[in-house]
Structures are given as C-alpha cells and as structure tokens.
Amino acid sequence: MTDSDDRRRVPVNEIRSLPELTAKHDETFIRLAQEAIQGHLPVYFAAVPLRLCVPFDLDYRPDRHPIGKQAIQSVLERGVTGTIPPMVVYPRGAWFVVSDHYIELFAALLGNPEFVPCWVMGKPDDDYVRDIQGPLDVNKVPKLFGLG
C-alpha cells in the first residue's frame, strides 16, 4: 500500500458503525429469523412483485451516502448480468417487509423489475407471488443469515 492509497488499516477497536448507514432495528425480523434458523418457521423461495416489497425503516436512505450509493450501484450492475441476489423478507398483510437487504431493495427500485427473488420467512399467501419453491431444507437456512 502506498501513501497515495485511499485505504488505510484501522484497528478493530476503532471500527464504528456509521449512523447514516445503519437502519432501525426490526424485532420482528430478528424473531422470525431465529425461528427459521431453529427450524420452527419454514422459508420459501419466490418471485415477489417489487411493488409489494417495503422497507421496514422508511427513513433509512443508503442512497444518500457515498458508500451506500457505491454498494447499490454494484448490486445493480450484477443484476444486469443476471446475478440478482435474493432478499430475505417476511409477509405483513399484503406487503413483504425488507429489513436486512436495503441495498438490494434500492438497486431493484432503480432497475425496476416486475418481480424480485426473495427468501420468504413463512409461506407466502399472496396471489401475486410467483414460482414459490420450498420450504428450504432447515439445515440450509442458517446460511441465508450468514451463519455457516
């Protein structure tokens, strides 16, 4: 690494979260994820209409921060090549709440596909949802949450 590099080494004890890049904590998402990981809640893969996907934190705007913009652009570029990362969502009434995949949601909003790939915690019961598959093998669920 040279002096002209923008990168620098940061000691672990100095790493802090950036408030402008931190969404509100969603207790429902945490509870459902725990139930899914423990095998008490089935997880399905489905094509969910983008218009039914809503963010949990309506005030969170990663697109207004340079790092967030860069991450959104990266996901959008992968989507152009057909590599669209699925979002983990949960149903709430007629909506599918996005609580942990805001970058993917904002990229989808820019690309504006009719459907987005989602892992749905709980069986989706909506006539607009397509290609429902599953439930996912309970041993594979932890990987959806970055565990294992």
Question: How would you describe this structure to a colleague?
Answer:
Helix content is 27%, strand content 21%. The protein is an alpha/beta fold and 148 residues long. It has a domain at 42-144: Conserved hypothetical protein from pyrococcus furiosus pfu- 392566-001, ParB domain, CATH 3.90.1530.10. It has a six-stranded mixed β-sheet. α2 (66-80) crosses α3 (102-111). The chain is globular. Residues 1-6 have low confidence and may be disordered.
CATH class placement of the domain at 42-144? Alpha Beta
Q: Uncertain segments of ≥5 residues (pLDDT<50)?
A: 1-6
| C-alpha end-to-end distance | 32 Å
CATH topology of the domain at 42-144: Conserved hypothetical protein from pyrococcus furiosus pfu- 392566-001, ParB domain
Q: Can you give the helix content as a percent range?
A: 25-40%
What's the CATH superfamily of the domain at 42-144, by name?
Conserved hypothetical protein from pyrococcus furiosus pfu- 392566-001, ParB domain
Biggest β-sheet description: 6 strands, mixed
**Topology, number of strands:** 6
Instruction: Please tell me the overall pLDDT.
Output: 86
What is the 3D shape?
globular
- Return the CATH architecture of the domain at 42-144: Alpha-Beta Complex
Radius of gyration of CA atoms, rounded to a whole number: 17 Å
Order of helices and strands: HEEHEEHEEH
**Beta-strand percent range:** 15-25%
What is the number of helical segments per DSSP (H or I, 4+ residues)?
4
